[in-house]
Amino acid sequence: PLGDKPVLAHTLELFNRLDFVDCIVVTASANCVEEYRNLCDEYGINKLLTVVEGGKERQDSINIALNVLRPTRCRFVAVHDGARPLVTEKLVANLYANLLRGNLPDEKYHSQVDTQFSYKDWLELEKNLDIGKKLSHKELTKSGLWGKDGKAKTPSGSAICGVIPGVAVKDTIKRVDQFGCVHDTLKRAELRAIQTPQMFRFDTLVQAYEEAEHSGFLGTDDASLVERCGGKVLVLPGEYTNLKITTVDDITVARRLLEEMYV
């Protein structure tokens, strides 16, 4: 546990209280599906759509979740690691706001994506785009995200297909060969350690997953699939506190950070 509740509960509670999140899909291994459903009930995760059994690889699990979401005809989707419980509302809202700005109908707005877009600004932006309501097929077509044939429409070259958080790399990164010898040293100023949540146009991510499945490509994150298809992905400032808990040391650090957040 982290503090007085499970790690996953912290993560789910944050997304559950965000106004711009309509529904949540959780993927789990077969032996954890019922446990996660009970956890969602216990902590009042009322935006939960379902807990679904995932696949062999992370990529398989996300693909399953995307298929569950298809009937909702949502316009945007966020993919997040349940093991990143210290993600903040400010970070998630900033990602969402910039993804919205990158998909405004008038192309002149596509170049105005602001990496310092404030937490509160998305409220006015969402109001103007009327993102919150469920859209009919006619409205989806008018929005430019779906074609008249009912299929997802490929975004224009200037549109932002996805936004992801990243933090500057502190250590020097070297590329090594198969024998462990240094091949070259990468420019640290150009590198970012990428985190989640990663947000995308729903149609774009589905298309990227379909292409990856068809070609047998296995990416290291969701953005790599979109990049591979030529989609434009924007990296925004992440948070060093948004760590992924994978070891005992990580949980120790997370507990300290959690204490500091509520001091």
**Overall outline:** globular
Number of DSSP-assigned strands: 9
Order of helices and strands: HEHEHEHHHEEEEEHHEH
CATH level 1 class label:
Alpha Beta
pLDDT under 50 segments (min length 5)?
A: 106-115, 129-155
Helix content: 25-40%
Quickly give the structural class. Answer: alpha/beta
User: Roughly what is the average pLDDT, rounded to an integer?
Assistant: 85
The description of the largest β-sheet is: 5 strands, mixed
Straight-line N-to-C gap: 19 Å
**In angstroms, what is the radius of gyration?**
19 Å
Number of domains in the coordinates? 1
Beta fraction: 15-25%
CATH fold node name:
Spore Coat Polysaccharide Biosynthesis Protein SpsA, Chain A
Number of helices: 9
Q: Superfamily at the CATH H level?
A: Spore Coat Polysaccharide Biosynthesis Protein SpsA, Chain A
CATH architecture: Alpha-Beta Complex
Describe this structure in words.
This protein is of the alpha/beta class. Helices cover 37% and strands 16% of the residues. The protein has a single domain (7-261), classed as Spore Coat Polysaccharide Biosynthesis Protein SpsA, Chain A, CATH 3.90.550. Strands 3, 4, 7, 8 and 9 form a five-stranded mixed sheet that branches. The protein has a two-stranded parallel sheet with strand order 1-2. Helix 4 (89-101) crosses helix 5 and helix 7 crosses helix 8 (222-228). The longest helix has 14 residues, at 202-215. It is globular. It starts with 6 loop residues before the first helix and ends with a helix.
